[in-house]
Structure formats: structure tokens, C-alpha cells
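Researcher: Here's a chain I'd like modeled. Treat it as a single chain, no partners, no ligands.
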Amino acid sequence: MFDEKTVLRIPGPTPVPPEVTRAMTHSMIGHRSGDFSTLFKEVQENLRELFQTSGDVAVIAGTGTAGLEAAVYSMVQQGDRVLAISTGNFGDRFTDIARRTESEVLTMNCEWGTSANVQEIVETLQQYPDIQVVLLTHCETSTGVLNDVKEIARVTHEHGAYLIVDAVSSFVGSPLLMDEWHVDIVVTGSQKALGLPPGLALVAMGPRAIERMKEGPAARSFYFDLRRYQKDISASTTPWTPPVSLIYGLRQSVSMILAEGLQKTQDRHRLLRDMTRAGIRALGLTLMVEDDHMASHTVTTVFVNHADEVRKIMKNDLHLAVAGGQKQLAGKIIRIGHMGYVDASDVLQCLATLEIALVKTGYDITLGTGVGAAAEVYVHAENTRN
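Model: Modeled as a single isolated chain. C-alpha cells:
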């Protein structure tokens, strides 16, 4: 009876709001029509507000990785020295993309579960004054670490280098003031906190980045050349055929976030993070990221004995899916996503499901302990707000 029922509490794809689903059923229109230009212009204006930028936002048919490749291939020039900062699996992916360019890539590999050290970045920039581009992941989805983009952007800007930020799993869930912080390019994807199906990469381009791309040689990629996207934005269109239905969904999603208020959206994600972490601690489990200041607002990583068996029970018996660990963390952790179309009751449901799975795999816990701790955080937040 419940063969197709799965509650997603993974770090993406995330649940799609019914309003967004309905928006994507809009009758098809020509992608070179005036109707599409009107739609695209509205989306552009609203995306600028979410990215906190006056720049342009390329809308690319592809996943977040496509956006990262577009950013690197459009910004990194032959002979450049690039600093790639990795705090986990997706930082490693960002590094691998850069290594496919004709540049010299320096790597700063941080211990998984820790954030990038700003002072180490300063020292590296001083040691290599010819670093032109810095790559950074805001939220490292594989570990649940949140890097200090504001400070890293400051030291990068003072050095005179360009900063490209992977904000795929942090966008709208965590503060990221692109223009104010002097971030040159921010990349995200549709299937995370935006609450859309996979299929769109969004690349916000600041003025310094646009100028560098205009002055530099042609990008090594035809499809992912951001200059083509930036040029066509002024005409309210895209260089290649866009996924029109997804863009209708994007318009609805962005409108819903703006209606809630960007600050309130970020506050909601922070509260969900705090509820989840309180519940995990109450159960006596170990968080991979102990420091709350370094902890992602959108995904929480937890060390669990027999992690894959716990996940299997949660999904097969109770129809709720959480993610497992990647690379050296496989079988050792679970990753709980709490982003996008998620509220406090969803966190309580997830913790209750986890508690049952823990009991079934031999944990000696009192059912309701984690749920109760999370509920207390929620009630306290509500009382403080009122």
C-alpha cells in the first residue's frame, strides 16, 4: 500500500511544495517568445534579491555541478594559480573541476568535520601572492560543516583574488550577502532549499567577475560559457533552450521565499538545525560537527552504530529516508536534511523515526527523549519570538 511513500529527509532532493508542482504544470510556451521573456525577467529580479546582489544570475539547465563547472571554466584562465579549499567530498569535487583547467591548483584539505581556518588561508595567500582564484564550499554537504564565507571573502578580496562559492546546499538556508561580502560568484542548485526538482543550476555573477570574463579569453566550454548567459540576460532570455517548466516552478519557489521573507527563511532553517542538534545530543549520539558555529543550517551529520541498518529500518519500516556517509564516512554516519519545504513538525517526525530505528538496532534509549529535547527548543524559540 505504501510502496511509493517516502518522506525525504536527505540533503537533496528535497520535498517539492504543491504550489511549485502546480506551477510546473503551466502550459508550454515558446522559449523565444515574449511570454518567456516576461517570465524570465521576473525570475531574474527576484533571484537578485535572494542572492543579495545587483549582478546577473545565469540559469543553466543542469545540476549544481554544472554551475560549478561553468564558474570555473569561465573564470579560471590558462596559467592561473588557483587555491581550492576542501572540507569534504564536495570540496574535493570542486577541486577536481579546477584540475581539468590549464591552471596550477593548490589544495587546502581540511580534516573532515572541521571548517576552513581563515588564518591558514591568509598565510597561503601571502606565500603565493599570484593566486588569482579561490574556490570554497559554503556548506559541505558530506560533513555538515559551514565555512565562514564572510571572513574568507574579506581576506580573498584584500588579496585581490576572485572568490567562487559553492552554495548548493546553503543557499537561502544560511546568510550569504554576495555584494556586501565581496563574493564574486555564487553557485547553487534547484533541488535543495529552493524546493524544486533537480535540473537547474543558478550562477550569480558579481561585477568583478563579469569584468574578468569579458576581458579574458573565451571559456573552454561552449555550453557553460557564462559570458553567453550574461549577455542574453539583458534581453531576458537564455543562450540555449531552457527547461521552461522548471523556470515556472522557480518563479513560484522564489516568490514563496520572498513572501516568507529571506530573513525569516534563514531563521527557520537555523531553528530546524538547533532542534535537530538538541534531539541528537539528548539521545547521547555524537554530532560530527560539535561546534554550533561551524554547523550547517541545512544538514546535520551524526555518528551512528550500524548506520546503514538504521537507515534501512527508517526507510523500509517507517517510510522516511535519511542519507548515509560518503567515502571514508560510508556506514559510519547518517545525514539528516532539514532544508526547503520543511518545518518543525518534520524535524520531530524524523527524530521519532530515528529513535525507533535506534531501539531496533540495540541502542538503550528512552523513546521520546530526542523528540522532547527538540520540542523544548521550538517552544523556547516561540516564546522568545512572542
